[in-house]
Design goal:
Elements (H helix, E strand, L loop, with lengths): L1 H21 L3 H30 L3 H7 L1 H22 L1 H5 L2 H17 L3 H12 L14 H26 L1
Helix pairs in contact: 2-4, 2-7, 3-4, 4-8, 6-7, 6-8
Keywords: Membrane, Transmembrane, Transmembrane helix
């Protein structure tokens, strides 16, 4: 048992020193997740337009030829909506540890479903930093955050099912 505690302490010290080196804190991680969810889909849209121009097709033509690109475009739209939802709920989420953890676990799972390891990794680091939020009282109106996150999660699950269906036929 003592060996396990020593390993935990070493890993914890490693993450703390790494976070100090990068000047990471709870808010920076959360805002970084929002930034990634908002800007990466724009880069994807530019890539899609460049690819369509290269092939001499419209963006819709490329999506009709390749259903996986259409599904990834839906995922990009969901990412933008997730980023916007997190931005709008940022004060409430950053003030309650349980809600923060719930939201980031949801982001972690949904981003793993669509293989977005960058955001999933940031969400995992954010969960590790959740102790920076002091003990908080239970929220009375957490449905204002839980409902949009749940609906977006359903959208990601739908896209994952569609991707698996397209790839297995």
């Amino acid at each position: 048992m003592n060996m396990v505690n020593t390993v935990k302490e070493r890993v914890s010290n490693y993450f703390q020193s790494f976070a100090e080196m990068l000047h990471l804190n709870l808010k920076r991680i959360f805002y970084g997740i929002i930034l990634i969810l908002s800007l990466v889909p724009m880069a994807y849209a530019l890539f899609l337009m460049l690819n369509a121009a290269k092939e001499g097709l419209s963006v819709m033509g490329v999506m009709q030829q390749r259903p996986t690109i259409a599904i990834l475009s839906i995922v990009a739209g969901l990412d933008v909506m997730s980023g916007y939802s997190l931005w709008m709920a940022r004060k409430r989420v950053l003030s309650n540890r349980r809600l923060y953890q719930l939201v980031l676990v949801s982001v972690l799972v949904t981003q793993l479903l669509v293989s977005n390891f960058l955001v999933a990794g940031a969400a995992l680091v954010g969960i590790l930093f959740s102790r920076q939020i002091g003990a908080t009282k239970p929220l009375a109106h957490k449905s204002s955050v839980a409902v949009p996150i749940s609906l977006l999660s359903l959208g990601y699950v739908f896209c994952t099912v569609m991707m698996v269906t397209v790839m297995t036929r």
